[in-house]
Amino acid sequence: MQNKLSTYTCVACLVLKQNRKSVMNTTNWPEGIKKTKQREAIWSVLTTTDKPITAMEIVERLGDGSTTWMSTIYRTLELLETKDIVTRTTLMGSDMAYYEITPHTHRHYAVCTKCGAMIPLHTCPVVEMPQELTDAGFTVTEHHLEIAGICKNCKNKG
After folding, report:
1. 88-113 burial by CB neighbour count: b if 16+ within 10 A, else e?
2. Is the full-model pTM beyond 0.70?
3. What's the rounded Cα separation, in Å, for the pair 105 and 3?
4. In which region does residue 137 sit, left (phi positive, over 0), alpha (psi from -120 to 50) or beta (all else)?
5. Over its length of 158 residues, how does the chain's per-residue pLDDT go in tens digits?
6. What are the residues whose beta carbons fall under 8 Å from the beta carbon of 3, sequence distance 6 or more?
7. ∠ CA(77), CA(146), CA(86), 5° rounding?
8. How many Å apart are CA 8 and CA 11, to the nearest integer?
9. In whole angstroms, what is the distance from residue 21 CA to residue 40 CA?
């Protein structure tokens, strides 16, 4: 039985390292990345979406006339991820990867476990870390939070 505290699954929350460069809400080409027609098309999709998307969604947004192969998309996403320009997250219980431009602050997303709708959470539910971590001398560099449930639209469908 599902816990009724939440209607969504929190996908990921990444606390960014202080030295990461913010590229959020920019269409400027990232420094140090060779520019190709295919990479520009992928970059355009990433910079014009308001939520994390899968590689398959990138293919769909590029359209039927695109000459960009899936392997090129994955290689480009991997390159952007290694440069901390793109953040990759996965859903609870799934191997599906979602990508977004690395935000300047950490984010949480809620995802319906039935339809996959993603809802951004504007505040972090983790208000403070447990005292046990401080006592142990543990430094938190990132955290992930998962809460399972069903969205309002799916509940209304029966």
Report:
1. bbebeeeeebbbbbbeeeebbbbbbb
2. no
3. 29
4. left
5. 333 333 333 333 333 332 233 333 345 888 889 999 999 999 999 999 888 899 999 999 998 888 899 999 999 999 999 998 998 888 777 788 989 888 766 777 788 888 888 877 777 777 788 889 989 999 888 777 777 789 999 999 87
6. 147, 148, 149
7. 15
8. 9
9. 20
Distance separating alpha carbons of residues 8 and 52, to the nearest angstrom? 16
Residue 2 structure tokens: 């599902």
Q: Which residue shows structure tokens 């520009």?
A: 40
Residue 58 and residue 101 in contact, taking contact as beta carbons nearer than 8 Å: no
